[in-house]
Each structure stands twice: as C-alpha cells, then as structure tokens.
Input
Amino acid sequence: MKFNPGFDIEPTTNPMGFVYGPDVFGPPVENRLLKDIRKSLSDPDCDGPEVVYAIAMDVGKKIHEPLLKEMHLLYGVVTYAAGKLGREPIRSQGHIHWVSKFSQWSTPEVYEIWSGEAIIYMQEFAEDNPGRCFAVYARPGDVVIVPPYWAHATISANPDEPLTFGAWCDRDYGFEYEGVRRHKGIAWFPVFNDKNKIEWQANPLYEKSELICKTPADYSALGIVKGEAIYTTFEKNPDTFLYVPRPELKKEVWENYQP
Output
C-alpha cells in the first residue's frame, strides 16, 4: 500500500480482498466478475480477469462502528485486478446513486486513492445529452468527490498494477444502472493505445459532448485536508462528512460543481 488510509487494513491480490487488523471491523468481500459487467463494455466479448474487483462495504475502526451507524455514514473499500478488459481498462460499470430514503437525495461519494492510478469519470446525466463530462486523474493520496445525481465510473489507468481505494458513502447506498445501460455504457469509453496510455472514444449512443481531463479540484469547501486520510479527518471531526448522507447541507457547493 502506497498511502496510509488511517486504519489497519491491507489489500490482498491472491485471493483478491482485504485483511482487517484486530481493531478493524468489516464484512467478507464480494467479488464482481467479468460476466457481470460485459454489457457496459465497448467490446462485451473481450477477455480479461475473471474477478474484476473485490469490494467490502462498511469497514472502519471498531470503536467508531456505533457512531458511523448513528450518522448514517459508511466507508467502503475496493481493490481492482491488474490487467485489461480487451482494450479497455479495469473499471466499474457506471451508475448513479439512487435517491436515499434517509435524505431524499441522490448522494455524493468521497473517493481516496490508496495505490495504483485512477481515473474517476463522471457525467452530469445518464440521458441522451450527458451534460458536462470529466475524467479526473488521481494518484495515491488524492481525493476525488462525485456530486449527487451524476453518473460515474472508477477506472484503473495502469494495467500493470492493482488499483485500491476507499470511499465515504451514504449507509443507504444503492445504484441506478438503467440510463447507463440504455446507452450501453458511459458517454466516453477509455481504451488503451499501443503505448498502454488511456485514450477516449465517444459513445455514439449519446449526443455530442466534450470531455474535460483534469486533476482533482481543491475540495477544502467539503472538508478535505490535503495529504490527510479521509478516515483520519473523520476521526478528528466526525461531522466533516455529514454532507455525504445529508447532501442538502452543501447544496451551494453542488451547483455548477467542478470536480
């Protein structure tokens, strides 16, 4: 692990998953298989690792477990396999967070990269017009925040190493796939060129759009402290991430949002 996430957890590759320290709680990991995500790939018949990624939702220090439940806050961890999906990188399908029964909002997500190279792709809508589209390139220690209601996908930019990340989520998390699946994927497909670098191809099932490639924004208005693990920030001041289960608290930040 290249970045210390602020609690005792170690990703594993064979089998893919996580080892929890003695003071850490967490569930058995769930594996996402290649067959589960084929419909969202530009080449649904491609070759790739059978286990694309392993995910554990609701981890943290045992001392914080009651507080996290009380706050309706959840920390999830994911590790991606090394390799490719045909010409495409290892990635999630692309989805929108459903409207939480707790807040009546689609909720944001606070990503933190632990190892590997990530691209957090996001678009305003999963409709024919995808709105603004961003590809945010992130390295270990970087934080990227996806706002409410946006479609997004997490992409591994380096096929030679696994990607591992953590994220603050609403405890009433759930995913809407309909819009993305109706368009057979996100508005811009990432593919590897002959030099193993990501290039972007427009998905013709969407209206024409522009893709903005960038590094993460300054998220100080959302409580992010540069170089500090987001779990450590929570430990110091648990109220910092109240806006994750209650996004209306930062309504002004989500307007004209720039990731």
The chain has a mean pLDDT of 95. The longest helix spans residues 65-71. The first strand starts at residue 9 and ends at 13.
